[in-house]
Amino acid sequence: MTIEPRGDDARLARHLAHAAGLALLEERTGTAEGKALKDAGDARAQAVLAALLAEHRPGDAVLSEEAADSAARLSAERVWIIDPLDGTREFSERPRTDWAVHVAFWEKGELASGAIALPARDVVYGTDEPPVLPPRPEGPIRLAVSRSRPPAFVTEVAQELGAELVPMGSAGVKCSSVWTGEADAYLHAGGQFEWDSAAPVAVARAAGLHTSRIDGSPLVYNRADPQLPDLLVCRTEFAEKILATVARHIPEVIAR
Known about the structure:
The protein is built from 8 helices and 10 strands. By secondary structure, the protein is α/β, with parallel strands linked by helices. The strands form 2 sheets. The protein has a 5-stranded mixed β-sheet, sandwiched between helices. The protein has a 5-stranded mixed β-sheet with strand order 7-6-8-10-9.
């Protein structure tokens, strides 16, 4: 894949996510198990992404889950926000496929582009070729939730909405389920960081989906504190209804 030195950040994001995904698939064929496999995956994907960014965008700042942060990014105009392996638990549980690589590019205050690789499913979603939303089937709203630890808050909101819960793995996979049509919304309030949502949000926006905090306020990236604890990604026709329902539960979420 040929990458231009400048001006094609969306294609570069796709290339980075794909390359890290291939490395993770190779890492997964080894004998490591459990924590050792998680750690090896995190380190391998981080090394691939760091090397490629140093080669293609040496002057850009980087915020990564798997690297030391630097205050220099706060005054930078160009920042890559990456999660080398989103869903380490699922990655370590062969043959699960619900784990991902997140690569987002932020420029002058806004997410400009991004890509998510789901390596075990042999797919990369990116802003260079935004996903096309499929027609929605009839039925209740479907909420993507954690397969192992769905927040009580989301369960309560789902009950009020008359929604169905669709359990799955990583945050990237849950976001992608909205643009692939497996779910109608991903609602989260259990604590996240910018690298958990930046790439999924970039792709979701390119696909025409609603993205916001759970109180409806904008998602802001490249802040001094990278914690970004809550998120709503959903089909636009459900945004108002979901936000109105969530608003009745926000005091309980804060109390928790």
